[in-house]
Every structure is written in C-alpha cells, then in structure tokens.
Amino acid sequence: MHLLLTGGTGLIGRALCQRLLAQGHRLTVLSRDPRRVARFCGPQVQAWTSLQSWRDADGIEAVINLAGEPIADAAWSARRQQLLRDSRVALTQQLVARMRALQQPPQVLLSGSAIGFYGEGGEGVLDESAPQGADFSAQLCADWEAAALPAGTLGVRVALLRTSVVLSAEGGMLARVLPPFRLGLGARLGDGRQWFSWIHIEDQLRAILFLLENSSCSGAYNLSAPQALRNTEFTQALARQLHRPARLVTPAWALRTLLGERASLLLGSQRVLARRLPDAGFAFDYPQLAPALAQLLAR
Ligand SMILES: NC(=O)c1ccc[n+]([C@@H]2O[C@H](COP(=O)([O-])OP(=O)(O)OC[C@H]3O[C@@H](n4cnc5c(N)ncnc54)[C@H](OP(=O)(O)O)[C@@H]3O)[C@@H](O)[C@H]2O)c1
C-alpha cells in the first residue's frame, strides 16, 4: 500500500515509518525538510514539501497525519499558539482540501489528536464519550479533529488518534525526565494526586496499525494504556526502576511561575480509559507501567 505521512520525521512518525517499511509498504512523507525524511525515515521514502505534489496517479490509499509543532517546548504566547494551531489545524484542512481535489481520495485518514482534548479531568474517568475540555490544548485538539472529520464526506474513513503521553526510549517525555531521575532528583509534581495517562511507543504503533487495517474503525480512539496512575505513583515507579530515590517535590506554584499556562500539561489530571480500542479487539502489549518502563530502560 502507498501511504502518505505527515510528521513522519517525528518521534512516533519515524518509528512508524520503520514498521510500515518492514511490512513492505511504500511511503511518502510530507516534511518541511526532505533531508530529515532521508535521515529519519530512510532513503527509500519519498519526501514532499508541498501537498500540491499529490496526484491521483500516486495511488495513495492511506494518510497518517501526525504533524504538529511541539506543544511543550516554548511558552504559549499568542504567536506560539498560532504556530501550534497552524501546524495542526491548518495543515489538516489543507490535507482534506487536497483530497477533495482528487478523483480518487484515499480510503482512510488516521489523524492526530491528544488526550488534551478532555482538558482538566479531575478524578473522573475519561473514555471517548467524555466531553471536550475548556483550556487551550482542549480547543486545539477539538479544532484539529474537526479539521479532519470532513474527509468523511468524501468517503474517506476517518479515525482520530487521541494520544496520551508516549513513553519511548528515543525521546519525548521520558527522555526529558530521565536525567534528573538518574541523579536521584526525581520529584513529585504539585500534590502528585493528578492522574497521568501514558502509552508505550510499541502499543502506540500497534494501535495505529490496528486502526489502519480494521476497516470498521472510525471516529475517536483513546490511545492510552489501561493503567492510568497518579503522578506520585508514576514518580515512584520510575525511581524504583532506576534504583534511585525520588523524595523531592516540585511545588505547583513554582511550575506555574516557570511555565505559565503550560503547567497544565504537568499539573492537569487526566484519567483516560481507552474503551473503543479493546472493544474493537485491540489488546495492549504493555498495559502496566512497571513492565513498560523496564522494557524501555533496558535498551
Ligand atoms: N509524543 C507524545 O507524547 C504525544 C502525545 C499526544 C499527542 N501527540 C501528537 O502526536 C503527533 C506526533 O507526535 P511526536 O511526538 O511524534 O511529534 P514530534 O516528534 O514533535 O514530531 C512532529 C512532527 O511534526 C512536524 N512539525 C513540527 N513542527 C511543525 C510545523 N511548525 N509545521 C509543520 N510541521 C511541523 C515535524 O516534521 P518535519 O520537521 O519533517 O516537517 C515533526 O517531525 C504530534 O502532533 C503530537 O502533538 C504526541
């Protein structure tokens, strides 16, 4: 199958490219920098810098849309918020507009989103039927999803990847927290009672492939391991794996002062339940945190 990926050079995208190539698929990656495609996705992967390159003759059957300016990297100034939106919402709108211009749109669009869709969830269990939250990330995710859904009117099957924090040895959240934890400087965040939802990169890839292959799957899917934990439990589990103490506390006020609105990414509570994936027959390889961390840290 010929697939088009956006964000194919990112943490999830490059691992996905390796998996899809190993399965014998042909890949095209839309990227701002074709050299990154050759480097991170492989020399056999075709790189596009514009969607205008997409023709019916390309025979693209599936699109996996993962592009997005990293959300945690810089303060959410008005300019930054626009960049976060444009790299997701505007790009997704362009994707769908391009599909509309084709005689033969793809069969399926798997489009990025995040559990940020639900906003602050407190103690409540958030399955796919939970309502949209009210903060900036929630609106961003909702608009990102809303940009993808119109592809459905073209006969394209649309599945939305509401992704929780992806744990990978190659980057992302785990790579950021490992250095202090390895030094014994692991710290609970705020009161540590906030729920943390996560997924092992391997399950993230398997879930994407599952949604690609199962033609009855459409709509929103939570990509989140069954065992959500409180921040304190995550902190202790990671420290245990590293045989280090984690007795420190980063006060909520310090995070809010340092990070502003972005502190919600660390202090917000999201107890997410992936209901629709298991209902469709998907089983997680890493449902529990301790074995997931053990596997990632052993590499
Ligand atoms: N990793 C997580 O824990 C997590 C959790 C929830 C949701 N997500 C979402 O899932 C998607 C993939 O995650 P990831 O961790 O693989 O992301 P990533 O490593 O940050 O990569 C995202 C990709 O998006 C492209 N991109 C970045 N800024 C862009 C911009 N301003 N305009 C256009 N394209 C841009 C880049 O491709 P080029 O440089 O090749 O253009 C990059 O490779 C993201 O949209 C992210 O928000 C991730």
Automatic annotation (TrEMBL):
Tell me the InterPro entries matching this sequence: DUF1731 (IPR013549), Epimerase_deHydtase (IPR001509), NAD(P)-bd_dom_sf (IPR036291), SDR39U1 (IPR010099)
Pfam families per record: DUF1731, Epimerase
Tell me the superkingdom of the source. Answer: Bacteria
Question: DUF1731 domain location, by residue?
Answer: 250-296
Q: Which family does it belong to?
A: Belongs to the NAD(P)-dependent epimerase/dehydratase family. SDR39U1 subfamily.
**Name of the protein described by the UniProt record:** TIGR01777 family protein
Q: Where is the NAD-dependent epimerase/dehydratase domain?
A: 4-223
